[in-house]
Amino acid sequence: MQVRGKGPWPRSNAERDVKPWLVARLGQPSDREGASMAAWLMEHETGMSKGDRLVAGHLFSESEMDRLALAAARIAGGEPIQYVLGKAWFDGMELVARSGALIPRPETEELVADVAAKLVASGWDAPFVVDWCTGS
Fold first, then answer.
1. What is this structure's pTM?
2. Which residue in 3, 113, 120, 125 is a FRET match for 16, CA 20 to 30 A apart?
3. 97 and 117 assigned to the same domain
4. Helix boundaries (H) for 5-105
5. Per-residue pLDDT tens digits for 92-109
6. Is the domain of 42 the same as that of 103?
7. Number of independent structural domains in the chain
8. 59, 53, 65, 51: which is closest to 22 by C-alpha?
9. Co-location of 24 and 80 in the same domain
10. Under 8 Å CB-to-CB from 66, ≥6 apart: which residues?
11. What long-range pairs does 40-49 form, CB within 8 A, spacing at least 24?
12. Are 62 and 92 found together in one domain?
């Protein structure tokens, strides 16, 4: 049996109504964080950027709305968005993200960039750095 999202639903399936509906469902501590997460989810679900959706006059289908509601419920329940999307980003790479693996931290990405810059500055032409993913 397929799990379905639960209402309430937005007034329409247009971007202007779907985004605030989704932000409210995400239950994030700030509207800015919720808006960012909503943008990621909407792009992931449609495969279209916000600009492409607006130019095309995209209306979210019932199936897309259902999947957005389910994703928002998972995030509101404390699941990281990277696990919901099934991917995370690190140093320009898109990585598979599953609950059995750690999510790369932005601080680690900054550290890697800093170390790589220092290695290059010290004369290494093409430094090769390995992160053993030991976590905290």
1. 0.80
2. 3
3. yes
4. 15-26, 31-46, 50-56, 62-76, 81-85
5. 899 999 998 888 888 988
6. no
7. 2
8. 65
9. yes
10. 4, 5
11. 40/81, 40/85, 41/68, 41/71, 41/72, 41/81, 41/84, 41/85, 42/15, 42/18, 42/68, 44/85, 45/71
12. no
